[in-house]
């Protein structure tokens, strides 16, 4: 519970300290005395954002400090222990707000972060301010209220985790698909180009080899004629070189029988004749290979023309052509790789989609069960607050998925980060009236009671130790305010309750009352807070709440009577 609160240099507050007790406490005083400023200070100590405008004029810093008694086994105590912060003697939260706008947070004298402050104080106190009325009118807040009641935070966080996983995957698929579409537009052309090159089946240096072959074919008849003439001169004609050399050799052989030198010459002639015979044979074999067919030259020209065309398109050299072909194949394989990547991602998305659909369905079932209980319990609370004929319901709706980017259940219910449900609170204040959204129905007084009723219901499911109400009496009076006072008193049996009120019918039910007043001293405004003990001081404050500035004996008697009624 909140045991002590210290505020210094904050708005119109110079330096005040308040010690709170368990049970029901009220803060009373004239409008503008600073009651809501105290609630704002508590809000900041629970982790809300600070503003330099809150620093008292002429001061460098505003200082806020609260002391909470915490149970040893509470969530807060365990969280402090996990952060290596000693919470055995309680929790001291301190914030220093500078006039420059900077804010520092201290938890048990250790400088900390705003995020940790929010976590530490989450289960310690909850504030229902005047803004809660407007917040209740905003349908985007209704789902959060229902989830708090139905205790679906864990399942909701699981849906959110899956949603945050699947959304980037779908975005990646969309980007890859767009890229693949663009690649596929050129894929046909790439395939045509690669097929054109592949079909040509060109060999390295084939253009050079073909050019040589072409020159040979162009000179084939001249070469054939020259080769055959050489064969004829060497071997075939009468009086050929071999025939003449053979004649010389035979003559030399006859003479060489007596002359050794001539014998050697004969041997050389024999060798020359054999060489010429080999030459003639080689030329004859070569002549058989000479291609004299005009079609061969035509085919060679056609092949050279094909290669030349391909070199002009992809070259200018064969090396460049082969390099271009390799690049095209790589681009085609990238297209295939992108398609495979999309297929893999789609499998992942489908698997996650199964899980998120199941979780969203489970979450919706729990919410609907919680909504029935919330409607029933809220109805009971409203009955106790003079709204017994009112009917309160939680209405569910779903969006239908309209495009492929939407995440949805198998029956096309769209899933968002909070699940598949759209929730809004409906109210029928009087019998015979149709249920309508709160924004179209509820008056200020009705909203005050609905806020209180929901707080009463939610307090049974959430372990908040301290409940703070800022002017929950807005728009009510008479017997209704009496009922509200009783309801607050009942809540104080389970929670520490701190309430700002202007109504004596509510204040009389408090065990503890503080009077807040505003004074101007030497041109500066000062707010003071005085605890009122049971007795004359409290009777006078209740009388002021009833009669204003002119307090008569009858008013004092009425005030005393109200306090006696409440205590009995």
Main pleated sheet: 6 strands, antiparallel
CATH fold assignment of the domain at 1-124 and 464-532? Rossmann fold
Helix fraction by DSSP (H/I, runs of at least 4): 55-70%
Q: Give the strand line-up of the largest sheet.
A: 2-1-4-5-6-7
Helices, by number, come to 18
Oligomer: single chain
User: What does the radius of gyration come to?
Assistant: 51 Å
The number of distinct β-strands equals 15
Structural class call reads alpha/beta
- CATH class category name of the domain at 1-124 and 464-532: Alpha Beta
Which blocks of ≥5 consecutive residues have pLDDT under 50?
Answer: none
Q: Could you say which overall geometry the principal axes of the C-alpha atoms support?
A: rod-shaped
| CATH homologous superfamily designation of the domain at 1-124 and 464-532 | P-loop containing nucleotide triphosphate hydrolases
What's the rounded overall pLDDT mean? 86
β-strand amount: 15-25%
- What is the CATH architecture annotation of the domain at 1-124 and 464-532? 3-Layer(aba) Sandwich
The first-to-last residue Cα distance is: 26 Å
Descriptive labels:
568 residues; alpha/beta; Rossmann fold; six-stranded mixed sheet; 18 helices; 56% helix
What can you tell me about this protein's structure?
It comes from Desulfobacula phenolica. It holds the Pfam family SMC_N. Residues 166-193 form a coiled coil. One of its GO terms (biological process) is DNA recombination. With 568 residues, this protein is α/β, with parallel strands linked by helices. It is built from 18 helices and 15 strands. A six-stranded antiparallel beta sheet has the order 2-1-4-5-6-7. It has a six-stranded mixed beta sheet with strand order 8-12-13-3-14-15. β10 and β11 form a beta hairpin. The mean pLDDT is 86.
